[in-house]
Specification:
CATH architecture of the largest domain: Alpha-Beta Barrel
Order of helices and strands: HHHHEEEHEHEHHEHEHEHEHEHHEHHEH
Strand order of the largest sheet: 6-8-9-10
Helix content: 40-55%
CATH topology of the largest domain: TIM Barrel
Number of helices: 17
Shape: globular
CATH superfamily of the largest domain: Aldolase class I
Number of domains: 2
Distance between the termini: 27 Å
Structural class: alpha/beta
CATH class of the largest domain: Alpha Beta
Strand content: 5-15%
Length: 373
């Protein structure tokens, strides 16, 4: 949809970096950006033009409404056999603070209500399929109307190997138990030149993508992510987005993309990487909005960005803040200084402060009032 109002806004954007002129023209025409366009966006000093273009695309795709969800995050275990240099969360079996929550303890942590229950952990070889199915069924029985968004692609890939099952059969078991959606974690950076340096013992890029391909085939929607701001370069980030776009062309199963800045504290990667760069965080939101033309929603994830930077992200292409987020530990262990959780009133205030209209949504980004009608 490109009516006169949007065209007037787009026509008013005049890049100071003239190398962006062809990109602005493509955006005005609704044409798809390519890899070289992505590199120009990555390297331009004219971040204001990039943000303005992405903000227009956000409005064209989603209007002036910004979503949030009532959700809770449960990290069911911190024991993990993988070695990720960017992670401060994982523990080895026998570590004094290693844990596995029982299915009943998972249920207790959820509390009284959530529209979405986000369940992830580590690649824990001590946990079998029965544990997961029991946990999912308990959650489904107590919260029949909530979406259970459980386990990352790397967790499914490792579990399928342990159980000697195909990923398709494994996901079918989870779906039958009550799984509603896959989160997007574990993608990190797809390019092998980077991936092999920052993690060992997790699914590679093709394996991650194939888990999501299989989920989409089974009618299980998912999100996707990118971890940026460590040792990767612009070409690796653009490559990552192109791979996500290609899969979305094939399946149409991604609901939203989440930009995850690398958190510099309490992990091994900080010895060779620079501290976070807020400008680059915003650039990645805008880049994703401009490149991922076939993914409807881009999140400005306040839990990792912090509230103020997340608000800027809403004017750089993002149309969602994620949610209330209770109990999330992964970011906490990495040294984030954002609040541990927010109430819906706080999220709505954040959205209104940047001139946009908040709405409470479900996991598929449909307004709750429409779902309930």
């Amino acid at each position: 949809m490109r009516n006169d109002f949007y065209m007037d806004r787009l026509n008013m954007i005049k890049p100071t970096d003239r190398s962006l002129d062809p990109i602005a023209e493509k955006v005005r025409n609704g044409d798809r950006l390519n890899f070289e366009d992505g590199l120009k966006i990555e390297n331009t000093p004219d971040i204001h033009t990039v943000m303005a273009l992405a903000d227009c695309v956000r409005e064209i795709k989603n209007g002036n409404r910004v979503g949030y969800i009532l959700n809770t995050h449960i990290d069911y275990t911190n024991i993990c056999s993988a070695t990720c240099k960017f992670c401060a969360f994982y523990r080895r079996p026998g570590d004094p603070d290693a844990y596995v929550l029982s299915p009943g303890e998972v249920l207790e942590r959820i509390g009284e209500w959530a529209d979405e229950i986000h369940l992830i952990g580590g690649i824990n070889p001590q946990i079998d399929l029965d544990y997961y199915l029991e946990t999912i069924k308990l959650i489904r029985d107590k919260f029949p109307d909530a979406t259970i968004k459980a386990l990352t692609a790397v967790e499914y890939f490792a579990l399928a190997r342990r159980e000697k099952m195909t990923v398709e059969d494994l996901l079918t078991e989870f779906k039958n138990a009550g799984l509603g959606m896959l989160p997007g974690g574990g993608a990190e950076i797809f390019h092998p030149d980077v991936r092999k340096k920052i993690l060992v013992g997790k699914a590679d890029a093709d394996e991650w993508l194939d888990v999501h391909r299989t989920a989409h085939k089974l009618g299980i929607a998912s999100n996707c992510t990118m971890l940026h701001g460590h040792i990767e370069g612009p070409e690796h980030r653009v490559d990552h987005l192109m791979r996500l776009r290609n899969l979305q062309d094939e399946t149409g199963g991604f609901i939203a993309h989440v930009i995850l800045p690398y958190l510099h504290g309490s992990n091994d990667l900080n010895k060779v990487s620079a501290p976070p760069d807020g400008i680059n965080d915003i650039r990645q939101i805008a880049l994703a909005r401009l490149i991922l033309d076939n993914i409807q929603h881009i999140k400005s994830y306040w839990r990792v960005l912090g509230p103020k930077l997340a608000q800027i992200g809403l004017r750089a292409g993002a149309d969602d803040l994620d949610g209330t987020i209770v109990y999330e530990e992964v970011m906490l262990r990495a040294g984030i200084d954002a609040p541990l959780q927010m109430g819906p009133e706080q999220l709505e205030d954040m959205i209104r402060e940047v001139g946009l209209e908040p709405f409470r949504r479900n996991s598929l980004h449909r307004p709750i009032e429409e779902v309930a009608a």
